[in-house]
Design goal:
The protein is an alpha+beta fold. It has 2 helices and 7 strands; from the N terminus they run H-E-E-E-E-E-E-E-H. It has a 4-stranded antiparallel beta sheet with strand order 1-2-3-4, with helices on both faces.
């Protein structure tokens, strides 16, 4: 998956200096020189979603956390995470791109997604022009 991600980024003229893969389906990377973010989600070796964002145009970055409380007989109330996305708003168009980091429908076991989304929110927030 990483090889395909880097090859696709390279075909788009990107040199991805920093990148991550997780969950067997997700990749995200940044070309620090061109200030472009590239994201790819795959299922069964087929690209399902590719997003390329010019960070020069980034106006905001927010974490979307869709969770809900559930009652467990022995423990009381727990929270179940359904979806975790990084929402990036582009200033010139007002368009918002949603980068999925976790979906309970795709992968019921959550591992390091919360830490990753916080890290990437911090990275892209550094590119928001004041």
């Amino acid at each position: 998956m990483l090889k395909k991600f880097l090859e696709t980024g390279n075909s788009l003229g990107l040199q991805l200096n920093e990148f991550e893969t997780w969950g067997g389906a997700y990749c995200i990377g940044i070309d620090k020189n061109l200030k472009r973010l590239f994201y790819m989600k795959k299922r069964q070796n087929v690209s399902e979603k590719e997003i390329l964002i010019d960070l020069h145009d980034l106006s905001s970055s927010t974490i979307f956390n869709a969770s809900r409380p559930v009652k467990a007989e022995t423990v009381g109330e727990n929270t179940v995470l359904d979806l975790l996305e990084l929402n990036l708003r582009l200033g010139s168009t007002g368009k918002e791109e949603s980068i999925e980091f976790y979906s309970r429908n795709e992968n019921p076991v959550r591992k390091k997604e919360w830490e990753l989304i916080q890290k990437w929110d911090s990275i892209v927030s550094g590119y928001i022009s004041s």
